[in-house]
Amino acid sequence: MALDMENWFDNMDENTAQPSAFGFEDGTTDAVLTEVSLFQSKSSSWSAVQFTFEDSEGTSDNGYRVSVSQKKTDGSKLSAKAWQSNVFQLMRPLILFNKEMKKVVDLDTIRQGNQAVVEALQPVADKKTLKVKILKETPEAKEGETAFSKYTFLDPIEVPWETE
């Protein structure tokens, strides 16, 4: 959404919340997948598939991460239900875009782990044609904690701008 800086500035008062400097604002955004990478946690030994999406104004958001690892950071096995949920989170935006994406990222690839999924999705991200409608919601942070945004992928869309 275009920012009307004058209107925002004129209406700024003591109740105005600081806007996010990075990523999408909370709400619904039409976006294109522009990059997929392997996110490596600095504080522990876990990794995740990290998606970067871009909207029509060039704003990027790389906060959507999902791990398809079947092991926890302590080496114990993830429950079947937890792993199934993670696989759903990975596949939801892909299947909404095109059901044929299960041929690009199949169950054998997912079982190989996060790096294999990143490699399988790289050609899709390079084409910049995977279009999504994202609902981003960030809960209020509790004192001393970081609030992580929740990303929900809505029905597939026709992005109203040209992609590369």
Q: Taking strands numbered 1, 2, ... along the chain, how are they ordered across the largest sheet?
A: 3-2-1-4-5
Q: What percent strand?
A: 15-25%
Unreliable sequence segments: none
Number of separate strands: 5
Q: Measured on Cα atoms, how large is the radius of gyration?
A: 18 Å
Gross morphology is globular
Could you estimate the helical fraction of the residues in percent? Answer: 25-40%
Task: Give, in order, the helices and strands.
Answer: HEEEHHHHEE
With helices defined by DSSP (H or I, 4 residues minimum), what is the helix count?
A: 5
Structural class: alpha+beta
The end-to-end span amounts to 20 Å
Residue-averaged pLDDT = 85
Largest sheet: 5 strands, antiparallel
Structure commentary:
- It is a single chain.
- This protein is α+β, with helices and mostly antiparallel strands and 164 residues long.
- Helices cover 30% and strands 24% of the residues.
- The protein contains five helices and five strands, in the order H-E-E-E-H-H-H-H-E-E.
- It has a five-stranded antiparallel sheet with strand order 3-2-1-4-5.
- The mean pLDDT is 85.
Q: What's the short story on this structure?
A:
The protein has 164 residues and is an alpha+beta fold. Helices cover 30% and strands 24% of the residues.
List keywords for this structure.
globular; 164 residues; 5 helices; 5 strands; alpha+beta; single chain; five-stranded antiparallel sheet
Explain the layout of strands and helices.
Elements: H1 5-11, E1 27-40, E2 47-54, E3 60-66, H2 80-97, H3 101-104, H4 107-112, H5 114-127, E4 131-137, E5 150-153
Antiparallel strand pairs: 1-2, 1-4, 2-3, 4-5
